[in-house]
Structures are given as C-alpha cells and as structure tokens.
Amino acid sequence: MSRVRECRTPRPGVWGAAVFLVLLIAAAVFPGLLVSGDPNGTDMLAALQGPTADHPLGTDANGRDLLTRIVHGARPSLLAGLGVTALSIAAGTVIGLAAGLGGRIADETLMRLVDVVLSIPTLMLALLVITITGPGVFNTVLAIAFFMVPKYARLIRTQVAVIRRAGFVEAATSLGLTRVRIVLRHILPNAFQPLLALATIEVGAAIVAVASLSFLGLGAKPPAPEWGAMLAGGRDYFSVAWWVAVFPGVAITLTVLSITVLGRYLQRRLEGRPA
Amino acid sequence: MSEELVELTGLTVEFGTTRVVKGVSLTVRSGECVALVGESGSGKSVTARTLLGLTGDGARVKAETLRIGGRDATAFTERQWREVRGTGIGYVLQDALVSLDPLRTIGKEVAEAIRPYRTASRADIRKRVVHLLEAVGVPEPEVRASQYPHELSGGLRQRALIASAIACDPVLLIADEPTTALDVTVQAQILRLLGLRKRTGTALLLISHDLAVVAELADRVLVMKDGVIVEEGATEDVLTSPRHPYTRELLAAVPGEHARGTRLSGTPGVPQRRGEPGEIVIEARDLVKTFKGRPAVREVSFRLRAGETLGLVGESGSGKTTTARLVLGLLDPDAGSVEIDGHDWRGLTRARKRELRRHIQVVYQDPLSSFDPRFNVRRILDEALHVGGEPKESRIDRSVELLEQVGLDASILERRPLSLSGGQRQRVAIARALAPRPRVIVCDEPVSALDVSVQAQVLDLLADLQADLGVAYLFISHHLGVVRHVSDRVAVMKDGRIVETGDVESVFTDPRHDYTRELIAAVPRLPDPSRAAVEEEVPA
Amino acid sequence: MSRVSKSRTPARHPVARRTLVRLGASLLVLWGAVTLAFASLHLTPGSIEDTLIGQSTVTPEVRAQIVADYGLDEPVHVQYLAYLGRVLKGDLGHSYQLHDSVSSLISSQAVPSLQLTLTGLGLAAVTAILLSLLTAKRSRLLRGVVSGLELVGISVPVFWAGILLLTVFSFQLGWFPAAGGDGFSGLVLPAVAVAISVTALLSQVMREGLETVLEEPFVLTARARGLSDLAVRFRHALRHVLLPAVTLGGWLFGLVLGGLVTIEMIFSRQGLGQLTLNAVTGKDLPVVMGVVVLTSGVYVVVNILLDLLYLVIDPRLRGAHEPGS
C-alpha cells in the first residue's frame, strides 16, 4: 500500500530530471534563446581558457565557447536518441508481435534471428556496419537502431506470450469474445505498457551509443558541436585543460540520468497496479 | 507445574499510522494449547511474531508486560532474542514450499536449527537431522534429508518445517496457519503430529482463520478481530456458547452439514429458497485428457440440469480444474464429448463456439487475475454485455442492474478491481458471468481465497441467484464443507476419475468409496451444539 | 493447480536435454554470426577484392591469390560453404593491410583485453555483492544515497568515465600512468572505468532482489530459528540474488566487450578494441569480420557457462520442470 503511494508522488529527483529535460528540449529547439554566440566561432586569443565570467565553462583549443557548443550539442544528441529509439521500436514491435501471435515456426525462426543479433555487442555490430558504409551521423543512427531492434522484439514477444496465458485472457475467451477483439483490447495494450518505460530508458542508451561512436571519430566529425565529437576533438588537451574533458561528458551524463530517472518513475507508476 | 511461558499484556503494534494490534493480552502456560483465531487483517500473525521479536520492519511495538520464560522481554537486545528463537520458542509458518529455502536441501535447513551448530561434528549433526525427521514422521529420513523442498509433497515439507522448529526442543511451538495450504487428508496428519508434540509436553500456540481446525487441539481459544481480542475462554465454551456477536457470526458462517439449506450470513439459519431442476444443460461423456503422457482426466462423465448444483470435490491434482476447462470448451478432450444445451463443442465453427460460450460462464478462484488490469468495473461489465448482445444504450442501466443483483452499489462502476475488497471483486466476477444470461456457471474454487464471513455472503448470493434465475452451477472445490452446503449432487474426484457420485446427503452420510470415507473423516469438525446456540436466537 | 506432489528419483535426463537444446541454440547463433559476417562482405559496395584489400595497395599476384582464397570466381553458395569450412577450421581470413592472418592478430591482442575484462568484471561483482548485501533494507538515507550513486553510475558513458579518471588521477594527481603502463598500475584506471556501470547495474538488480527475498517467509523462518540478520543475508539471501545477477551476466559481458574499444583507445592500451578500431577506420574488413565472429563465439561460451552456473545455484531447474523463463 505505502509502496503504491510512494511512487504516486514524484520525489525531488524526478522534478529535477523533468526541469533539466525541459531545458534540454528548449536548447535543442531554440538554442539561440539560451546562448547568443556562434558554436563554431573561433577566437584564438581566448584558446583553452578555464571557466570565467565570459566563458562560464571555459573554451577549447580554438577558443570556442564550451557553453555555447554544449547547448548547441543538445539537438544532434536528442535527435539521434529519439531517432534510434523510434526506428527500433517500430521494427521491434512488428517482429515481436509476429513472433508472439504467429505460429510456432514464425516464433522460432524470428527468435533465433534475434538471438544471433543479440549475441554480439551492439557497438561491435555498429562498427561492422560502419566499416561497410563508412562513417557518418546518419549511418551510426541507422546502425545502432538496427541492432536495438531485437531487444524490443524480444520484450514484446515475451509480453505477448505471458499475457496470452493470463487469467483475464482466458476469462475473455470463455466470455465469448472474438480473437481479434481479445488481441486488440486486451493483449496489445497490456503488452505495450512496459515498452513505454523501457523506451524512455533506451533513449538514454542510444544517446550514449551515438556519442561513443562520435568520440571514436565514426559519427559526427570534430568541428561539429556534438558532445562525443567535442570530447574527441579535445583529446590532446585533457592534460592541460580539464574543463574540455569534463563539461561535455557532464552534459551527456545529466541527460542520460534525467531520462533514466523519468523512465523509472514512469515504470514504477505503471507497475503500481499489478500486471 | 503449569508455569507461564509467555505473558503478554497490553500489546499495541503500529505500522506507520495504522494500528494493527490494539491492547492484546495473551498467556501461554507450559503444556497447554492456545489458539488465536481471526480473519485476515485481525492482527493475529503480528501478535505471534512479536513473541519472537520479529514483528517486522518499521513496526512500533508497545507492551505493558512481555515476559518470556519468566524474563522481561520488553528490553531484549537482538542477541537475547536470538537465544529465545529456536531454543525457547519454535515457529512454524504456513505453506512450507515458501517457508523453506528452495535452494537448500531440507537436511541443511533442519541442521541450521541445531545448536550448538559450530561445535558439533558433521556426523553428529547428520544423525540429529535424521533423528528429527524421523520424529516428525518423515519416511526414509536419510534420503529425504538430501532432497530439496520442491521434490517433496506438501505434507512432507510441512513435517520438515516442523522438524526444524523443534530441533532445539523448544518449550513452546508457535504454528501460524500450519495446515492452510494442505489437502484435507494431509491436514489431518499434520494436526495429529502437532497433537503428539502437545502430549510430549510442548506448549502450542496455534494461529488460524479456521475455528474447526483448532477445535480438536486447543485447550483455550482467543478470538481476534481488528486487533482486539473479542472473546476468550475454554475451547468448548467458546464454540458451544459464544458470547460475543462476532464469534457467533464466525461460527454461523461455517458451511457444512448443520447449515445445509439455510443461509450463512445476515440472519443465519433462515432456509434458502430452492428451485426445481429442469432440463439437462451439461452432458459430459467419458472425458479423457492427458498432458505429456500424464493422464489428468480419465473417463469422466456427468450430467447437470438447469437450476441444479453439482459439486465437484477432490484434492489438488485430482483433475477438477482440467475437467472445468474441458466443459468450458477451453481445452479439447482426447476422447469423449461435452454437450452444452444439447450442442457438442466438437465440430463447431469458431463463431458457433463463441455463441455457445454465452450459455456457459465461469467464476474463478482469483477474480483479480481474471480482470484486465486496465479495465474498471464499468468496462468489465460493458464487455460482457456486448457479448450478450445488449445494445450499447442500455448497457449502463443493465450494468447497474447486475451490480444490484450481486449486492453492489452503482458507485463502484468507475473503480478498478484492484481497489476493491476480495468479496467485492468476486461479486463483480459473478455479475460479469451473469451478464450474457448464461444457463450454467462453472465456479472454480470461487470462495477459497475469501475469509469465512465473506465466503458465507458469497455462497448465499450464489444460492439466491440460482433461485431467482434458475442458473445451474458446476461447483468445484476442495472444501468438503462448502461443497456439502451448496450442492444438490456431488461427484468425488481422485487421480482424474470420479470415484463416487450421488445425491449430496447420501454421499456424505453413507459414503461407498474408501477414498470418500477417508476424505470425510479427515474434515475437522466443530462441536455440534454451536448450531443449537445460534438457533435459540432465531424465532422459529 | 497441479503441484509436484510425489517425490521422484532425481531424473538426469531433463538436464541432459536442456544442455543439448542449449548447445544446439548456441551452434545456431554461431552459424548466424558467421553468415552475418559473410553477408556483410557481399553487401559492401564495390568489388569484393577491393573490399578485402581495403586501403592498402597490393601486387596483382596477391590479388589473384585473394580471388583463389575466397573462390571469388565460384558461385556465391560455393563461396559461402568454403567460408563456413574455413571458419570451422579456425581460419578467420587474412588482413592484407597488416600482412598477417586474422587469427594470429586476434590471439596476440586477446591477452591484454582478457585481463582488462576479467579484472573489471571481478571488481564489479565483488563491489556489487558487498554493496547490495550491506545496504538492502537498511535506513532510508543509506539506501537513498546508494541508489542515487547507482543511477549516476548507470548514466555515465563508459568512455567518459575513462576520460574523467584519466584527467583526475593521471593528469591532475599523477597517481597512475596516463598511457600504456604495463602490469598492475596500468590496469587500475581502465578496469575501474569498465567496472563503474557494471557495478551500478548489478548492485541495483541485486539490491532490489534482496529486498524481495528478505520479505520471503523462509527468511522469517530462518530468523525464527535464531539466525542473525547477517547470517540470513549471506547464507540464504545471497544465493537467491545471484540468480538475476547471472541472468544479466551475458549481457554485461557484452557491455564490457563493447566498452573495450573506447577504453583501450583512451588509455592507449594494446588489445582487441584497438585492433578493431584501427580496422574499422582503415576499412580492414577481414579483421572486423573476424572480431565479430570471435565475439559471438565468446558470447556463446559465456552463456553456456552461465547456464551451468544456473543449474548449480538453483536445484529446481535440475528437475523435470521447463527451464525458468
């Protein structure tokens, strides 16, 4: 009882996460509202300056203001995260439903395929694809999305398989409902419920994966104001300018943290009633 | 001789802001058996755990006096409590499947309770374990000691649990619902085992929701309700001449031979209305169903008429539920046939099957899992009415009508089942089953999860609905008292077969089959005069 | 309804069947990975010889050798079968850029990577077990702080954890070498970087598991026998929470393997990660294909081991029941 109540009222952390995400979305949509400068405007006289009043987060080796660049970096990160998640959920759902509701043969075939893809770390697979297609932002997003598909496919299939055997589905059957109605009214909505929370959390994972590839020089290229690429571009200066190493990473971590906190909150709320 | 082992006065326990125990006093003397009886939420288990210093996380415990073995326990340290646990007081919980660590052998579990554990040699401990298992009647104790809980039957598990509780020869054994999850014949064995402990001088504190279970064993009974002890006295006095209205209500609510044909709730003893059996609505012929080579149902045949109740009784694994699913057309039999209203499930198209399903509805033991968690009561009933062909406009009115029929208020329409009580949920389930105006309702253990007073109300409701609507029930239960109360005819199942069938009175008073006799003998009984005491209250 | 009520002689054959099924599934996974690698070769735009050669220049003799090696003048299905046969024999192909066979390249780089992986995982496992056992169901404050730390640990990208450790402990404090560094001192920072997210994930799962297990009736029974709280946690509860931890094991292993690429680059360590990264940037497809096949093989082996571990931990799975899902 108290558990249920506990997750009804958001804790301060959840509010913090929500506020941060609102700021982030604002930065992604209207970066000009938050910072005025040009993210790529160099000023060699102000290179590698520590945090000051002019440059709250310091400058990089080309004298570009880090705060401006980080704010502008919100858009590619969020777009990549959302893009990856949307693509992989769409494909994963179709495959998962086909496996869960189709016959035994469809189920076995699709799930073995899923097993194969799941047996190799996402990053490795993305690297394989990039070797073939060559580096680039679009390619990384596509590669990561492709390999996140199995996760959703498996989740949806498991959900469908469990819910198919749930008491309320048998009750609906013995009530005399049609199969189509049972699938649409009872199985699907309940199967999708946990997906929402997982998807939220996976947006964070996708952002990290895209940033990692950019850091490796396989996604966005260094002059671009992308968080992973900013870290890659600053690599040679970490020993003399800590802020170059710290702030872009803080941006990624806070983003992922906020998304995770909100996702968990959502999950707890949904689980507040038994499945 | 009879010293006080436990002396407790003025116990209050609070969890957060709710007070679950309000001023309970309890004494257990050496060699006696005290029973603490109450329905769920009465605070009986919490009281028992307090005697072990294990009330629970976040509990605020206050007691005027708490003396254990003559020592003041109100200020016991954790170390002192641990000395009491096991050696002074042994503790047996219900359902040994979850009360024994599933990842360890029962030998290890019993050994863990032996003291001093560290100084004894391995061989010594092994010998002690085997001896203890033997003492509680576990056959082949050497073999059993190296088995895991899931490899043993419920009865053996419960015995192993008792063995671990008596490993250090405690002077008091607390048993919290020790037989609740067990079949009735096994329950009788465990009760005999506890009786044996009592005769060897161990004091017993029995916690139970079932007055009949404690009736034979207990010297004194304490009846608990909402954290308060409402009545206390010698077992016979309490059971035969209860003073408190709640005790009377509890006793009256127990179904069984004495209450046949009368109401259990409200004003007990009032005769039930009954209809006359009509045409045949279910005809099951020679049903056979095998799962993976294991026969679940073998050659089961029976017949059910409109307005009649057929009780299907048997212990767990006897094939009752499989039979129900065959009858409902949810499973196809390997051989044999089921006709509903003269229509055989076999060879029907999907659409015709759906049509036929309206005629036969079902009420499950666990109503909560039979409702879509996203649906509220209005949507649950709306869907059932949709199936029954009710036009959209009149569905709300019909829903309200159905709720009234099952004794619920229209105000719960917008609530989700999760926020309803167990009794309310079962009423909603019954309303849903009634919605398509069925000829038969299959009731699969419909009252097994309910407290006895709620069970009484639901059983009365089912009887009223039958009288009003002429609906037939296939009533499945492991509880002989319930079956005897509700059924016109009864079929006894064992290992997938119907071993005996007939008119309910003749089966219960003159059982032909050995198994039926064994079952009936195993049912714990209340002393008969309880009925007399109640009947005095009711003007003839 | 149906409960196992009769005691059975412990049947061996369900375990054997389960193992066989698992082995079959593993072979399928391996076969799938090899096929995927082969398919990627053919999906790459341009001629296959060029793809295999990558960015290096070769003599016409070598080019002819490649065509012969891969049977490129044969139909696709013959090429495929030949490739399968070579992989079965342990021949993962030849890197024309590095002038070495892929298997020998991999085996020369495997040791440092394995060291890092095992150290990181071991560190994570020990920390997570202690953290979860000591904090589950303790005071709100303690749990709040630890679960907050866990959330941060999960959110920190592995590569940034590495950068941060490098900046603080090598550049600012000078406690550990910034690059390379053989032996233990060079292993500490990379291992910690790898372990952070794994620790956070494991500890979270195990703590949640513990909080459920400690509510179970058998825990109450054990306490009623006179066991101390700590003894209950270590003797009873720990085994129960190892189950979900083992379930996560295969996935965590993959997480660490993926993390190797960035971590080895940041700390300038030798290893499979570096090999892969160089191959990807240099378009050295034979090496990338080899690594993909190898990773899949490692995953399969790890999962079989975890499966056996499952059987050791949970006796219920040794019975006739279907493997728990």
TrEMBL record, chain A:
Its main location: membrane. It is a multi-pass membrane protein. It is found in: Cell membrane. It comes from the Bacteria. The chain crosses the membrane at residues 12-34, 78-101, 113-132, 138-156, 195-220, 240-263. The keyword Transferase does not apply. InterPro entries: BP-dependent_transpt_permease, MetI-like, MetI-like_sf. It holds the Pfam family BPD_transp_1. Keywords: Cell membrane, Membrane, Transmembrane, Transmembrane helix, Transport. Residues 78-263 form the ABC transmembrane type-1 domain. Gene3D superfamilies: MetI-like. Belongs to the binding-protein-dependent transport system permease family. PANTHER family: OLIGOPEPTIDE TRANSPORT SYSTEM PERMEASE PROTEIN APPC, PEPTIDE ABC TRANSPORTER PERMEASE PROTEIN. This is ABC transporter permease.
UniProtKB/TrEMBL annotation, chain B:
GO terms for molecular function: ATP binding. CDD domains: ABC_NikE_OppD_transporters. Residues 257-276 are annotated as: Disordered. Keywords: ATP-binding, Nucleotide-binding, Transport. It comes from the Bacteria. Residues 6-251, 282-520 form the ABC transporter domain. SUPFAM superfamilies: P-loop containing nucleoside triphosphate hydrolases (SSF52540). SMART domains: AAA (SM00382). InterPro entries: AAA+_ATPase, ABC_transp_ATP-bind, ABC_transporter-like_ATP-bd, ABC_transporter-like_CS, Oligopep_ABC_C, P-loop_NTPase. NCBIfam families: PRK10419.1 (NF007739), PRK11308.1 (NF008453). Belongs to the ABC transporter superfamily. This is ABC transporter ATP-binding protein. The lineage of its organism: Bacteria, Bacillati, Actinomycetota, Actinomycetes, Streptosporangiales.
